[in-house]
Specification:
The protein has 350 residues and is mostly beta strands. The chain has helices at 137-150, 166-175, 230-233, 265-273; strands at residues 6-9, 18-20, 28-33, 39-45, 56-63, 79-84, 90-93, 103-113, 119-121, 128-131, 154-157, 159-164, 179-180, 183-184, 200-204, 224-229, 238-246, 254-261, 276-277, 285-290, 293-299, 303-308, 312-313, 318-321.
């Protein structure tokens, strides 16, 4: 239902304009298909008796209640989408209502519009639950284009780095044979991001201080830093993907990029779900050969969070204590995206 949709909030028992009449068939065996981040198709079966009297369908679509939902919501007033009776399956679409990766309940009534404008309705069908999908490549490309607008000029860099507590690196040496292991990405960033809670990787930074060209001495993630030469992680044998663009109610924005060795499980995951970037020419992170040497640049005006999808041995770099502060306020762990920011949101939910 994308055009001419009415929204009707009514309490059936109190509204004399809606009368119940058993002759109208009750929808059953409801099927949900073709689910995207902001649309789905719905179909159902119904008895042929009085089928020709049906002029409209009422669809009651609600976010699934959870423990944290508003306890004061009036449960007796459903939000109904009113649609003209069209051949099934019918597409329900609309970024004003549907959000990505969100659980919904849906129930259906058949209705017959009377001469006076009121409706005769069937009983409600059974309630079906479903979950909307993640952002598609099309939606991520829209985010990518928004991120390009504010990425700024490119600065040279030479190392990727990862800050953690001393205990983390001790644990890696003792229990993982000196190799940092990929872990599942948390739920920070865009709610519809296909990498949240699914992609396994290791987070790295590459930002540099404008005046020194070196990594900053402060970090929100721990006082010990692993540094590795850029070419060890990012080279012609890796692919680069755009993962997300978001902010956390702040003036600065984050871009998540994924580096995956060609043909690796991480590469196969990203190839299906994320826009691939040209490693030599993009607005965020580049690796290009100059005079026989690989030269690296990163965008100045966004904070890059780089996910590498394979294990990384500590022997490939160095671990040392930083001299700066641990700025916990800058941590993005499970950070929620600002849904009102016009810079980093697209029009298909949040």
């Amino acid at each position: 239902i994308c055009c001419g949709t009415e929204y009707v909030a009514r309490n059936k028992s109190q509204d004399s304009g809606i009368a119940e009449m058993e002759e109208l068939p009750v929808p059953h065996n409801i099927k949900i298909s073709n689910i995207t981040c902001d649309s789905f198709k719905i179909s159902w079966e119904m008895d042929s008796k009085s089928k020709d009297r049906i002029t409209h369908y009422f669809i009651d679509l609600n976010k699934k209640e959870n423990k944290n939902s508003n306890k004061f919501k009036h449960k007796d007033v459903p939000t109904k989408l009113v649609a003209k009776a069209v051949p099934l399956p019918m597409t329900v679409r609309g970024h004003w209502f549907l959000s990505p990766r969100t659980e919904y309940t849906v129930a259906v009534q058949t209705a017959s519009k009377q001469v006076d404008g009121d409706y005769v309705v069937s009983e409600w069908s059974e309630i079906i639950e479903f979950c909307t999908a993640d952002y598609s490549k099309v939606h991520l490309t829209q985010l990518l284009e928004k991120a390009e607008v504010i990425s700024g000029r490119m600065l040279k860099f030479s190392v990727f780095y990862r800050n953690q507590h001393k205990e983390y690196f001790d644990y890696i040496r003792e229990h993982h044979g000196n190799a940092m292991q990929p872990s599942v990405k948390d739920n920070s960033g865009s709610h519809g991001s296909p990498i949240s809670g699914k992609l396994e990787g290791i987070f790295f930074s590459c930002s540099t201080e404008f005046n020194t060209g070196k990594p900053p001495q402060d970090s929100p993630y721990g006082r010990y830093r692993f540094e590795i030469a850029a070419e060890k992680l990012f080279n012609p044998n890796t692919n680069l993907y755009f993962g997300d663009f978001y902010c956390m109610y702040t003036a600065y924005h984050y871009v998540i990029l994924v580096i995956a060795p060609v043909g690796s499980p991480g590469d196969e995951f990203c190839k299906l779900r994320l826009p691939q970037l040209n490693s030599k020419d993009n607005k965020f992170l580049t690796c290009a050969e100059e005079d026989g040497v690989l030269v690296y640049h990163h965008a100045q005006d966004v904070i890059l969070e780089v996910i590498y999808t394979d294990p990384v041995d500590l022997s490939l770099g160095t671990v040392a204590e930083i001299t700066g502060h641990q700025l916990m306020s800058l941590s993005t762990a499970n950070a929620k995206k600002d849904p009102s920011c016009k810079t980093c949101n697209i029009s298909v939910g949040r």
